[in-house]
Amino acid sequence: MGKRLFMTLMSCLTVSATAQSTLTDTETRWLQLSAPAIGYAREQGLPLDIVVQPQPTPGNAPLAMAYVNGRCKLVLSMRGNPEAQSSLEAIPADLLLPVVEAMAAHELGHCWRYVRGAWNTVPAGFAPAQRETDPVRSQQLNEMQQTRREEGFADLVGLAWTLKKHPQHYAQVHAWLVHYRQDDTLPGSHHDTLAWVQLAAEPGAFTAAGSLFEQAWPLWQQGLRASE
């Protein structure tokens, strides 16, 4: 990442007044590694802001996406959160750059869906199976399925990014993601995205044309039925 891109990224930060002094080393590291994907969001015209939470956020995902007043917020929750550093340390050193870039691209997949007004929706003609008659359980299951579908799409965007920017590491990043999604993930739960990730085992599974989001779209639709 060039110095100019990183300085531009720093100037775009939205930080609470109590945190405007200095970014931590961990925050800086995550932003440096994520910067190429964030630059791609700018190129695609996504309304993206970066928010650094100044308060301790133990247990939060270090990197997450929110949508507020028509703009996407890439939220860094890293202060007082050991997971922010341990997540980096758990990634093999030779895969650190492509994996974190894929994680950032994953969040851009969420942003793209938000901006299109398609969050938690499915394409026309797709009807998720209804297995529960109890209304409370049915609502819980529906919300879990919605989250799972969005996570599946975002994982495919992350892999499409890897194929575009780090094709020599595609097989390794894909294997890392499979292991990550299998680890302590209950089948059918919010982050069980294997129905989509396994469809992308071969790079040729992706559509070649269009943005990363458009390249992931056909595979996501294929995985919708396999995920039910």
Structural write-up:
The protein is an alpha/beta fold. It is 53% helix and 9% strand. The protein contains eight helices and four strands. Strands 1-2-4-3 form a four-stranded mixed β-sheet. Helix 2 links the parallel strand 1 (13-15) and strand 2 (48-52). It starts with a helix and ends with a helix. The model is unreliable at 1-20 (pLDDT under 50).
Name its key features.
9% strand; alpha/beta; 4-stranded mixed β-sheet; 228 residues
Short description:
The protein is of the alpha/beta class and 228 residues long.
Radius of gyration over all CA atoms, rounded: 18 Å
Distance between termini? 40 Å
Number of strands: 4
Largest sheet descriptor = 4 strands, mixed
Strand residues, percent:
5-15%
Query: Structural class of the secondary structure composition?
Result: alpha/beta
